[in-house]
């Protein structure tokens, strides 16, 4: 299969996608003089090989595989989330590992999500397949929305932090089951179900972060607080030492909550923050403010 030619045609706009180009070339009557075996490029639960007896069957089988997704989608996307990288309110100060995230992002339209999928996600996956690097797992794509359209900032082959803490509150069911389905090539058999509403998390840091942090301060958590039933506290820079829970890193906690509205999710997260205290505790007070 002349993939270099297909890539050139894709770049020159002669074909809409590599999928379309492969479909057209393999269905050329001149290429069908021998017995043909068509195989899905990836796992398909033992059902990814077909043996068409003639050109018509080959056309049908290939169309079902490549254009109609007979073996199901090769990807499922989580809703977009917005991180807050700067240390201070108003996006001021040095960058951090992340001071809080909310999702979904209300000002990202469905049309923008479709554009991201069409111009970034799918070409990325197709490109990796073309290079023989079929990707299986969690692909994190950092994107910036610009006047010229969405642009890629980075890729990570993992969930983000603190993005994960927010997304976990939106995913219904067993995440491990979804990941196992990816490994076994059965993602099409699983349904990615999301909870209604929004989720938000706020990161608590120690004094000095993102520089060298202080450590060893005793942490107090009001477990009797009524707000705890609405929040999830994720530990990061904590340690049990000398009979007490103490700080031992820059980012200490991520306090997350879900709500039917973004405002409710944010309020619940900040009420959860109020139940925690330690010397030098710091957090941003404007997470999601640009979307409220």
How many DSSP-defined strands?
Answer: 15
| Chain-averaged pLDDT | 82
Instruction: Please give the CATH architecture of the domain at 84-97 and 197-291.
Output: Alpha-Beta Complex
Question: Major sheet: size, sense and barrel closure?
Answer: 5 strands, antiparallel
CATH class of the domain at 84-97 and 197-291: Alpha Beta
Radius of gyration (CA) equals 24 Å
Distance between the termini: 51 Å
Low-confidence stretches: 1-12, 14-26, 43-47
| CATH topology group of the domain at 84-97 and 197-291 | Glycinamide Ribonucleotide Synthetase, Chain A, domain 4
General description of the model:
- Its EC number is 6.3.4.13.
- It catalyses: 2-formamido-N(1)-(5-O-phospho-beta-D-ribosyl)acetamidine + ATP = 5-amino-1-(5-phospho-beta-D-ribosyl)imidazole + ADP + phosphate + H(+).
- Belongs to the GARS family.
- The protein has a five-stranded antiparallel β-sheet with strand order 3-6-9-14-11. A two-stranded antiparallel ribbon has the order 1-2. It has a two-stranded antiparallel sheet with strand order 4-5.
- The N terminus is likely disordered.
- Strand 7 and strand 8 form a beta hairpin.
- It is elongated and about 75 Å long.
- The protein contains seven helices and 15 strands.
- Among the domains are: 65 residues, 2-Layer Sandwich (Dna Ligase, domain 1); 109 residues, Glycinamide Ribonucleotide Synthetase, Chain A, domain 4 (Alpha-Beta Complex), CATH 3.90.600.10.
- Helix content is 28%, strand content 23%.
- With 292 residues, it is an alpha+beta fold.
């Amino acid at each position: 299969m002349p993939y270099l030619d297909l890539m050139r045609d894709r770049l020159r706009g002669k074909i809409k996608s590599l999928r379309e180009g492969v479909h057209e070339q393999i269905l050329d009557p001149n290429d069908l003089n021998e017995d043909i075996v068509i195989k899905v490029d990836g796992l398909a639960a033992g059902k990814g090989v077909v043996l068409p007896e003639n050109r018509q069957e080959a056309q049908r089988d290939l169309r079902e595989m490549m254009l109609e997704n007979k073996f199901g989608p090769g990807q499922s996307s989580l809703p977009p989330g917005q991180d807050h990288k700067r240390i201070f309110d108003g996006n001021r100060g040095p960058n951090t590992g992340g001071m809080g995230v909310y999702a979904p992002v209300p000002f990202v339209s469905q049309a923008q999500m479709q554009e991201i999928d069409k111009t970034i996600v799918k070409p990325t996956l197709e490109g990796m397949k073309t290079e023989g690097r079929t990707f299986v797992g969690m692909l994190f794509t950092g994107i910036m929305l610009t006047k010229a359209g969405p642009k890629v900032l980075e890729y990570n082959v993992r969930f983000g932090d603190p993005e994960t803490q927010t997304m976990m509150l939106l995913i219904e069911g067993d995440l491990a089951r979804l990941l196992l389905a990816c490994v076994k090539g059965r993602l099409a058999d699983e349904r990615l179900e999301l909870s209604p509403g929004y989720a938000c998390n706020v990161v608590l840091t120690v004094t000095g972060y993102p520089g060298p942090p202080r450590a060893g301060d005793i942490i107090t958590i009001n477990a009797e607080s009524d707000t705890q039933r609405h929040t999830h506290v994720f530990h990061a820079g904590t340690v049990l030492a000398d009979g007490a829970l103490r700080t031992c890193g820059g980012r200490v906690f991520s306090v997350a909550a879900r709500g039917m509205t973004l405002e409710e999710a944010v309020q619940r997260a900040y009420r959860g923050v109020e139940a925690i205290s330690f010397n030098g505790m710091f957090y941003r007070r404007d997470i999601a403010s640009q979307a409220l």
